[in-house]
Amino acid sequence: MWLPQAEDPRMQQGATSGERECLVGYLEHYRTTLELKCADLSPEQLGTRSVPPSNISLLGLVRHMARVEQSWFRRVIAGRPELPRLFGGADEDAGFSWPGDTDDALVAEAWSLWRAEVEHAREVLGRTDLDRVVDVHGQPTEVRDLIVHMIEEYARHCGHADLVRECIDGRAGQ
């Protein structure tokens, strides 16, 4: 076990009631999982790439998920498509690449950005009806579909995080 069940913050929520609470609960569960997978590591460890030729790292996953949160919640659901996407440069690879060394400042910046985007997403979702229809690449899409997509995105990347973490220090699971 990663943590004893009584100490796992994801297990403290209890049963959910209703669609919104269920969807938000799963989204928060995976957000917390990403944080847990990155806990107690040095900047160098967070920047450690997975199995070549992949460039996935835990730090890259945090940066990438900040980009994903920003894109769906600010640009699409909040209706701000004019905002430039985070880490949109060819050399940034959607957040998975960065110039220079992996140091405390880069890690702090990534976590700050991710946490700000998550907080904004919570605010947007809190005031948005799941039935609301938004435009996604010319297709009318309900907000609930985007939340399910976010859950899927986090779940997939938390699987990646689990494998990367196991390569770093042997911790896996949960």
TrEMBL record:
Q: A single Pfam family, by name?
A: MST
Protein origin, superkingdom: Bacteria
Matching InterPro entries: DinB/YfiT-like (IPR034660), MST-like (IPR007061)
Full protein name: DinB family protein
This protein's species is Nocardioides piscis
Lineage of source species: Bacteria, Bacillati, Actinomycetota, Actinomycetes, Propionibacteriales
